[in-house]
Amino acid sequence: MTKFLTVMFFGFVALSNAQAQWRTNTVLIMKAQTPKAVNLNTPGLGTFWGGFRRYLPITHNDGGLEVLRSKLFAKGKIDIYVSEKKTKAPLYIFMPGIFGQPSRGLTPEMIDHLEAIGGHVLVVPNLLSPSYVAAHPQYGEDPIALEIQVMEEALDFMQQRLGKRLGRVHVIAESLGTAIGSAWAAYDRTHLRRIYDLTLFSPPLELPLAMTNFDKIIDEHRPAAARCSSAFKLWTMLQNFVFQEYPGPVSAKGRECLGAVVLVDGFVNSAKKSWRAHVKVTQAKGVEPTGFESFFRQYRPELWTLIENKDQRLYLGHWMEIIKADKSFPIRIMTSSDDFLNAGLDWNAFQKTYGLSNEELIIVPWGGHSGAIAVPEFREILRETFSAEGD
């Protein structure tokens, strides 16, 4: 009898872990995209494609912004996105990428996906988004500890609100959101253990290097941003991206100009909006940022000190050691080998170091930064990924 129970236990663990990994069909779907994406042959173009496809759809989010009261902010509150089902359902907590806000940009499309597959949804704005900056987090000596506590409070809010309707808690994070998502998941493993699994899209492996790499590719596209006319950008978008899922060959000028749209017109202008929000709240002195180092140097000394000192907690590997120590905790990662944030780093070496299986880590050779999750089948991938029983 004891032997039978032991076999059943390990069989259950194996099944649980299998459900936690990327499904075989997801791996096949992502592999099938590579020949279709052959013309997304620069990191800038792949990043543009992903952002354009995710920004384009008309969204119909079921919920709206709610006030989370919190002493962790000078403002005493932060606006979060909440939607809920009438019956018991999983809670999907989405942590957006850099500057991401719940009600604009790329986030509403992700919310649509998560609501469509049948879950409650919670979104806390990215720590660099204008609304988060305006709320003015009270960092003190440890910004990372505060960010973790913000997420703990947000989950407390949902747990109290949903009661018995709360199923499994799934954390899904993108880009810069993965840094806090990983830190929070590691914290959760040694505390209340409320998080069921962690899914990371396009995580930066080392945030100090990611900032340097971001500024480098922005500088490379700055000349194109200055010389490309709005008419040419619009025509190139219409010609290559509006009426087809994947583009045909894009001219060299087109690649440069559309890369500049997302990198300079997009990311740099977003940094300026967050800087203005900071100035409005604090009356800070300084100049509008031209890149990420200029933003962080001026924004909050607490954050800049972490980056300047290359704090080990800014490295995904630091949190991965803690997370992977709990072999029952499911983790998935999807990324691109041409993600410019990780230029100079080796995902294969990372995979080997932290014992990630081929079912836990999907690396596609295209898409730049965060582009790969704009594949047409993405909603179905999410549905299959989170369709395990028990939610």
Q: Which sequence of SSEs, written as H and E, runs from N to C?
A: HHHEEEHEHHEHEHHHHHHEHEH
Distance between the termini: 30 Å
How helical, in percent, are the residues? 40-55%
What is the alpha-carbon Rg in Å? 21 Å
Q: Identify low-pLDDT runs.
A: 1-19
Strand content: 5-15%
In DSSP terms (H or I, runs of 4 or more residues), the helix count works out at 15
- Characterize the largest beta sheet: strand count, sense, and whether it forms a barrel: 8 strands, mixed
**Overall form:** globular
Extended strand count: 8
Q: Main sheet: which strands, in order across?
A: 1-2-4-3-5-6-7-8
Mean pLDDT over all positions:
93
Class per helix and strand makeup: alpha/beta
In short:
This protein is of the alpha/beta class and 391 residues long.
Structure description:
This protein has 15 helices and 8 strands. It is an alpha/beta fold. The protein has an 8-stranded mixed sheet, with helices on both faces. β1 (64-69) and β2 form a beta hairpin. It is globular and about 55 Å long. The two termini are 30 Å apart. Residues 1-19 have low confidence and may be disordered.
How would you summarize the topology of this molecule?
Elements (H helix, E strand, L loop, with lengths): L1 H19 L3 H13 L6 H13 L8 E6 L7 E7 L5 E7 L11 H10 L3 E4 L6 H6 L7 H20 L3 E9 L2 H13 L7 E5 L5 H21 L2 H13 L9 H31 L9 H8 L1 H8 L7 H10 L5 E6 L10 H7 L7 E4 L13 H8 L6
Parallel strand pairs: 3-4, 3-5, 5-6, 6-7, 7-8
Antiparallel strand pairs: 1-2, 2-4
Helix pairs in contact: 3-10, 6-7, 7-13, 8-10, 9-10
